[in-house]
Amino acid sequence: MGAGCGCSFGFPANERKGLSLTAFSSSLAETDAYMNIDGEDVKLSLVKSTSIDKKPRVGDRFSELYQANGIKVTALYLTTAVCGPREEACEATSYHVTITVVKGPRRQTVKLTGACGC
After folding, report:
1. Is residue 31 part of a domain?
2. Given this model, what pLDDT does residue 15 score?
3. Is 1 within a domain?
4. Does the reported pTM lie above 0.85?
5. Contacts 24+ apart (CB under 8 A), 56-61
């Protein structure tokens, strides 16, 4: 994902080690996302979202469904941190996301952390 507004998520264990490896990313301006699946970066198209256009609050939940060539990816988001009313420089909202990938008969679920912002 290039410059601009978007979301980036990685494995919590990598973050604790100081590694910034992205496992799932999406653009806020487009309906595409990218995820490394079986060693290949896959472009996913958004099919459905339960996100509501309102200011997020800690504890809010929503989901997104993506698809690409026989692959379904479900992302379940939990809002963990938001910008405070006096934090003018803050531009990101933090999430825990549980992602389930279904490819053929295989299913794998991973837990990631990250943020969306500009």
Report:
1. yes
2. 67
3. no
4. yes
5. 56/82, 56/93, 57/82, 58/82
Predicted local distance difference test score (pLDDT) of residue 2: 45
8: which 2 tokens?
């980036």
CA separation for the pair 38, 114 (Å, rounded): 21
Look at residue 91 and give its three-state secondary structure. coil
What distance in Å separates the CA atoms of residue 12 and residue 69, rounded to the nearest whole number? 28
The helix (H) or strand (E) run that includes residue 108 is strand 106-117
- Spatial distance between the Cα atoms of 90 and 114, rounded to a whole number of angstroms: 15
Could you give the number of structural domains in the chain?
1
Domain that residue 20 falls in: 6-117
SS3 track for 7-60: EEEECHHHHHCCCCCCCEEEECCCCEEEEEECCEEEEEEEEEECCCCCCCCCCC
Question: pLDDT by residue (tens digit) across 26-69?
Answer: 988 888 999 999 989 999 999 999 987 888 999 999 999 999 99
